[in-house]
């Protein structure tokens, strides 16, 4: 029904049939699905909570990456709006655990948005900075789809929660 980046853990919805697929995908397109992610970012964002907004599209310098463009920036035409709300959950010496709530569903959105803020995800080899600190034991980027709320065909809302996996719990314990 939707996708997660490679190495991102957490809730992933799969439809049993075409009818269910169409029903659920429509909710994603209409932005009615509420998604929450846990991310460990390098450093500490200036604000305890905020909204990252910009146009997102393929980076002209690296075709594997997405880039956040300002509306007046050359190359911004044709790029799609991306919005991520976030709030700080816990601060560590060199890292911050945040809850991110994407309001749009762009490729690599959360990863690109936090790199744009100057706080890439811990362990992110694609969006991270050269020589950025690496938490002990982290073998992938620290991004986990922790929660999703979606309407079922019956009309009831269903909230699915995925606890943080052991590898990421261990990383937090070690920092």
Describe this structure as you would to a colleague.
Strands 1, 2, 3, 4, 5, 6, 7 and 8 form an 8-stranded mixed β-sheet that branches. The mean pLDDT is 94. This protein has helices at residues 18-29, 109-116, 166-174; strands at 9-10, 34-42, 49-58, 66-69, 80-91, 95-102, 143-151, 157-161. The longest helix has 12 residues, at 18-29. The N and C termini lie far apart (35 Å). It is α+β, with helices and mostly antiparallel strands. 31% of the residues are buried.
Shape by Cα distribution: globular
> End-to-end distance, in Å?
35 Å
Radius of gyration: 17 Å
- The number of distinct β-strands equals 8
- Uncertain runs: none
Write down the secondary-structure element order.
Answer: EHEEEEEHEEH
Please state the structural category: alpha+beta
What assembly state would you assign to the polypeptide chains in this entry?
Answer: single chain
Percent of residues in helices comes to: 10-25%
């Amino acid at each position: 029904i939707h996708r997660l980046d490679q190495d991102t853990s957490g809730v992933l919805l799969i439809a049993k049939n075409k009818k269910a697929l169409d029903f659920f995908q429509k909710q994603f397109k209409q932005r009615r699905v509420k998604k929450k992610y846990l991310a460990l970012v390098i450093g500490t964002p200036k604000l305890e909570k905020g909204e990252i907004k910009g146009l997102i599209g393929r980076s002209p310098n690296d075709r594997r990456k997405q880039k956040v463009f300002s509306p007046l920036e050359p190359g911004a035409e044709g790029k799609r709006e991306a919005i991520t709300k976030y709030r700080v959950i816990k601060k560590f010496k060199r890292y911050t655990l945040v809850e991110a709530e994407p309001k749009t569903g762009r490729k690599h959105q959360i990863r690109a948005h936090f790199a744009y803020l100057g706080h890439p995800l811990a362990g992110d080899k694609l969006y991270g900075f050269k020589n950025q600190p690496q938490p002990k034991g982290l073998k992938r980027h620290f991004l986990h789809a922790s929660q999703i709320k979606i309407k079922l065909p019956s009309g009831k809302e269903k909230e699915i929660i995925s606890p943080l996996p052991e590898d990421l719990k261990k990383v937090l314990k070690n920092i």
